[in-house]
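Exam revision sheet. Question 4 asks you to relate a sequence to its structure. Input first:
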Amino acid sequence: RGFFSGAFGCVPLLIAALALLGGLVVVVLGADVVAATVLSLGRYCDEPLRLYVVTVFAAECVKVAVLRHLRRRRGARWIAWASAAALFLVLFVCEVGWGFLILRSSRTCRSKLPWLFYSTRALLYAALVGVASAVLGVLLAGLIEACLWLYHRRRRGRPDVAEADGPSTALAAGDTA
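Answer key, structure tokens:
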């Protein structure tokens, strides 16, 4: 029995479906931002939104290259994956923080380049919602897995480790309390 057992069997499928839908929304919004960037090349804006879009695209390319490298190395240890996750988190915070800073300090982009401005803003909000829902989904899946593990453990009649290794076990081995 594992995560797909019992009444919670549909929860991982729901989380996967929401993640797929969120990924599709981010791809569509990303394509919209790239199109807005290309079509607004000759127009002026007081904040470097085009530079931001190019920088974020380059950071995403770095992330993809790191993931491909780790996937090719079959013996990659967990520390390499944890380091990559930390790098991705730092890059994400920098990307979103810089994006919101640019959008907030913009004076003319909203009126002169509305497509680029609103597309970038929608992509930033979608990225925030996507990461928050992914984190909550992982936490929910872990909580459900822990609950199922405890439920099946109790159902089989196994006591907890603390109950099994009580003082009677130590005294039976010859130790004194």
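Marking note for examiners. The helical segments are 10-39, 49-72, 78-105, 109-112, 114-155, 161-164, 167-172.
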